[in-house]
Amino acid sequence: MQLNAPLDMHLHLRDGEMLHNIAHASATTFSGGLIMPNLVPPIQTKEAVIAYKNRILDAIGNEDFTPYMTLFFLPTYDKAFLSSMKAYITAIKLYPAGITTNSEGGVSGFDVETLRPTLEAMSQLDIPLCIHGETNGFVMDREAEFATIYERLATAFPKLKIIMEHITTKTSVALLDAYDNLYATITLHHLLITLDDVAGGMLQPHLFCKPIAKRPEDREALLKVALEAHPKVMFGSDSAPHPKDAKEACGCAAGVFTAPIALQVLTALFEKHHALNNLQAFVSTNAQNIYGITPIPKIVTLEKKNFTVPQTYNGVVPMYAGETLSYSIQGVSS
Ligand code: DOR
Ligand code: ZN
User: Fold this and answer.
1) pLDDT tens digit string along 203-217?
2) C-alpha span between 249 and 252 (Å, rounded)
3) Residue 15's CB: how many other CB atoms inside 10 A?
4) How far apart are alpha carbons 225 and 327 in whole angstroms?
5) Which of 42, 171, 195, 292 is deepest in the core (most CB within 10 A)?
6) Cα-to-centroid distance, 181 and ligand 1 (Å)
7) Within 6 Å (CB) of ligand 1, which residues are found?
8) How far is the CA of 33 from the centre of ligand 2 (A)?
9) For 224-274, what is each residue's pLDDT tens digit?
10) For position 170, what pLDDT does the model report?
11) CATH code given to domain 10-261
C-alpha cells in the first residue's frame, strides 16, 4: 500500500523540548500538517507565526515536511492585518474561551455582528476559519449544541470556508451536506473509540480528549464519511502530546498522541472496511482540494507486517502503547 504526500490537517506540535521530542513522529511520515496555535502565549502576531515556524523547521531537521501555520483567532483582527498575514498562514483557528488546552483567550459569545468585521475580511481574503466547535454545556452535548452556531456562521458568511475541527457527532456529519461552506477534519481516535473505551471500564487517560469520544452511532456516522472519503472531510489527527505524568494524573490533560501510529492504523481500518481505494483521498487529496495546497511529494509505503507500538516516544505515551498493529511503515521516499 502506498500513500502519496499524507497530510495531517490538525496537529499539535507544541514548543520547546516537547516540540523537539515529538516533531519527527509527524515529519518522517507526513508531507505536511496544519499546526495548531494554542501555545502559551497563543500565536497571534506575524512575528510569532514566523518564529514558531522556524522553531518547527529547526526541530524537524532534514525531513521534508511543511508546517502549514495558523493564527489564534481574535475578533479584533482587521483586514489590513489579515491581508499582511495571508502569505504566512493557511488558516485561522477559533477556540471558544476556555474550552480546551490553552484556549483561555478564545471567543466568548458568538455574536455574528461582533465577529462580522474579521470574518468578512477573512472571507474576502479567502482565509479558511477552523473552529473547535463546542459550547460549555454538558460534556456529551457540547458539539451537538454548537451546530446552531456553525449554521449561523455558515449562513452569515456564505463565502467563508469553515472547517469543523475534529468532529465527533452524527449532528456535525449532517451539516456537511446541508451547507456548501462547511467542511470537517476527523481524527483517528474518533473513528475507533466511543466513550465506552474511555470510561466504560477502567479509566483510560490516554484516550481522554476534547471533544470527548461519543456514542456508537456517532462513530458510525464519522466512519461512513471517512471511508467513502466524502470530499468535504479530511484527516486531521489532533495528535496532542502531553508528558506521561500529565496524563496519568489527578486532573488528566486532554489529548491523544497518535502521530507515530496514524498511517499504520488508518491503513488497517480502511482495509478492514474494504475502503483502501479511498484512503489517499482521505489523507491527502481532499485536503489539497479544500485548502488549495500542493504538498511536498512523499511516498509512504506500508506493508502488512506486525508492528508493536512502543510504550513511550520520548516520554509521551502513544495510543495503542504496547499493542501490536497489523501494518508497518516499510519505507518513505520522495
Ligand atoms: O484533546 C485535546 N487536546 N483537544 C484539544 O482541543 C486540544 C488538545 C491539546 O492541545 O492538548
Ligand atoms: Zn486540537
Assistant:
1) 999 999 999 999 999
2) 5
3) 14
4) 23
5) 42
6) 24
7) 12, 38, 100-101, 132, 209-210, 238, 240, 254-255
8) 12
9) 999 999 999 999 999 999 999 999 999 999 999 999 999 999 999 999 999
10) 98
11) 3.20.20.140
